[in-house]
């Protein structure tokens, strides 16, 4: 039997094929477009895996250094970036990197700020808290500690109050305490007790929540689950459809549609369909009014207490509303318009627009302060779509500081020393600055005029900017 | 921006631009070279030669054009020249076939970038044990046979395990790109 193309490609990429085998592989690849595409795909995957592994190797080395000096960290970063083949250029690149660091004002403080990190989940986190009521109290070693905190695998108890979690797959969970939620994966959780409502976007259909003795699988919907001490979990569907079953009773499988409810008697193995009181279940906020996010962008329903550098660290890009309505007392220059995607820092041109005095704006703040210090840059990217036109972004640091006086949210502490590195492209006179990886932060306004996409890298300081949209 | 007295070329016009562009497109160039050459040591060697050749020719580069396309041409020439210089013609593909692969790999450059981004998410979906294994296997300077020995497997069994993981990752990447195309 002929070997599969994979069985030939793997040893070829390891350099283990002999002359005859290489000739046979070439003959086969020459004759079959699909197998040739598969071969190229395998080679690309090999290269990408090596890039990831080497980058990780470099980061581990940087972290394990007892007292990382700037030079050491640079060397590690360069190693990740350039590997062995760039020795003739490495020193000169180090000069460029140092230049960027000096421009940003030096390395951030390390140990002190780590204590204030908000997302301290060592395992890849599955969700973050995007809102919680004033009386919300979390408990348990795996529980988040408040707004913006992450939830990984494990059990979290919400002793009181309500909290909204957003999972990485876009699922939104509204939890009402006292409740105990265990996340097994981003697609699967267990509600041991309490009440939970879920909104599942199309891309996450199949999301599953179990209650003791009951499995509930989403088929595209908004649904709720209530677990009390009665041994009779209740399921209610606000919108769409779910499939629920007692796993011990295959015949108990039930599909529930919009407005339908069911009670599952685990002990008797009995399913009772009927109307449960919707008030029993926590209500989901009307998502038509909430900016829609993709990728690593997270919209916080509540503003954090501080966005001062080092106090609200996360590997997601956080956005929150600052002012619902504000009338500009004087004209304000903002950036808008999409920069082009061509190569070269000097080719993208920003469109500057002046908003006249008297313009009524609603403001949102974008904050990206990655967790930790001293490693190579962390990249996060995604988009946010508002329910109304974007008037522009405030990116330049001086303008950002100036507009703090108008738009900063009461109760939130802002950093006094922010080093911005983003531009809408940049101009010939002011090319976009690069970060230590030689890449650029990108912020674009979409053609719909409502979507801001961003691709940000931070390593030494936070990235902050404002988005101004039209007020009602 | 300070210059480096030990490297007078860092004062040359366009040097900073060149370094920025080459850094930015290094992953794409490396993927391209990997498609053309068996074994990482050859790829590393060709990447170094490509960087030097690209710098020497940088004066011919028109900044209004696509740097990656230009650099891919340089890398392609260097890969073929390296193969000939090393007298390894009999252990790699024929010239004609390599040219064909190079044409197609250059067309894949944009797709390859999306695959790279999708891989980040797909690696996170692996179990921690498999993720650690694959990261160890592909770390720079690692001999996969050493990793196999460290976990008590024969190289053949380890290669099969890696192949399964790669297959899962490839499927995941394909799914991710399809979902992106739909959204």
Topology:
The complex is a heterodimer of chains A (472) and B (183).
Chain A: H1 5-13, H2 19-31, H3 33-64, H4 70-82, H5 87-104, H6 111-114, E1 127-132, E2 137-139, E3 150-151, E4 154-160, E5 162-167, E6 172-185, E7 188-199, E8 208-211, E9 214-227, E10 234-246, E11 249-257, E12 261-265, E13 270-273, E14 292-295, E15 297-300, E16 317-327, E17 332-336, E18 351-355, E19 360-368, E20 378-385, E21 390-394, H7 397-407, E22 442-445, E23 451-458, E24 463-470
Parallel strand pairs in A: 7-8, 15-16
Antiparallel strand pairs in A: 1-3, 1-5, 2-4, 4-6, 5-6, 6-7, 7-9, 8-9, 9-10, 10-11, 10-12, 12-13, 14-20, 16-19, 17-18, 19-24, 20-23, 21-24, 22-23
Helix pairs in contact in A: 1-3, 2-3, 3-4, 4-5
Chain B: H1 15-36, H2 40-56, H3 67-85, H4 95-107, H5 109-125, H6 128-138, H7 144-150, H8 155-182
Helix pairs in contact in B: 1-2, 1-3, 2-3, 3-4, 5-8, 7-8
Describe the protein's architecture and organization.
The complex is a heterodimer of chains A (472) and B (183). Chain A has 472 residues and is an alpha+beta fold. Chain A has three domains: 1-64; 127-285, Jelly Rolls (Sandwich), CATH 2.60.120; 290-470, no CATH class. Chain A has helices spanning 5-13, 19-31, 33-64, 70-82, 87-104, 111-114, 397-407; strands at 127-132, 137-139, 150-151, 154-160, 162-167, 172-185, 188-199, 208-211, 214-227, 234-246, 249-257, 261-265, 270-273, 292-295, 297-300, 317-327, 332-336, 351-355, 360-368, 378-385, 390-394, 442-445, 451-458, 463-470. In chain A, strands 1, 2, 3, 4, 5, 6, 7, 8, 9, 10, 11, 12 and 13 form a 13-stranded mixed sheet that branches. A five-stranded mixed sheet of chain A has the order 15-16-19-24-21, covered by helices on one side. In chain A, a hairpin with a 2-residue loop joins strand 6 and strand 7 (188-199). Chain A is flat. Chain A starts with a helix and ends with a strand. Chain B is mainly α. Chain B is 73% helix and 0% strand. Chain B has helices at 15-36, 40-56, 67-85, 95-107, 109-125, 128-138, 144-150, 155-182. In chain B, helix 1 (15-36) packs antiparallel against helix 2 (40-56), helix 3 runs antiparallel to helix 4 and helix 5 packs across helix 8. The model of chain B is unreliable at 1-11 (pLDDT under 50). The interface between A and B is large, with 64 and 78 residues.
